[in-house]
# Entry
Amino acid sequence: MSTTFTLDTATSRAHPVPEPVRRLTVPAIARRKGGEPIVMLTAYTARMAQLLDSHCDLLLVGDSLGQVIYGLDTTVKVSVEMMIAHGAAVVRGSYRSVVVIDLPFGTYEESPEAAFRTAARVMQETGAAAVKLEGGAVMAPTVKFLAERGIPVMAHVGLTPQAVNALGGYGARGRSEAEAAKILDDARAVAAAGCFALVVEGVVEPLARAITETVACPTIGIGASPACDGQVLVVDDMLGMFERVPRFVERFDDLKTHISAAAERYAGAVRDRSFPGEAQLYR
# Structure
């Protein structure tokens, strides 16, 4: 048993109140192949984790935080320190979901041993249950090395944002027969190496369906196929925080408009001196 936390509004915005709850486990997620669809969203802060936790099976602390939080142009510039800081916050804010943390570019590709050192540090300093790394067959030995040493690995094939410089952009992958065959081979390789789940990103739909039918582990699609065993989106995209999003995103709300409108009302109240009012003053 672990504990869950609810907000004690009488003391602090995020003061924890423990209640018994059982957190989902990596093996439980792995057993969801072909079963109830797996729900996954990104999270980068404790408060967002608190809001998403009861609705999600997996929370991904994605290196997409480089663009979403820090305004970077690619995920290549994200550091392990960034991932650890945000990963620890998400673990503190979640008590049901499995928390997975991206290993950033340059911290795991050199060798399985280098990947182990990074992954061990990330898990020790955050309390997360698993790590995610990008790459296909070339990373299969690393996936195997980590899995055999007690580090659950979520793999990632198809469009791999950390390789954007080599890929030449963020376009959908697998349009040619040769590329589709390679991505399918990549998926088979990392699944055979022992990843517990596989993100399939930005590939043509028939390829995503074929990968899902081929590998034994659950697939989690993003710009892939409804046939995948689960789906993931960047939470800020899903909430409508940005004007431009990839084609595969559906905005389930329009928070940017709500936030802008609230800021406009606040600014007006400050300027006309109606805020703070009597209810906000100490007498």
Summary: The first helix runs from residue 26 to 30.
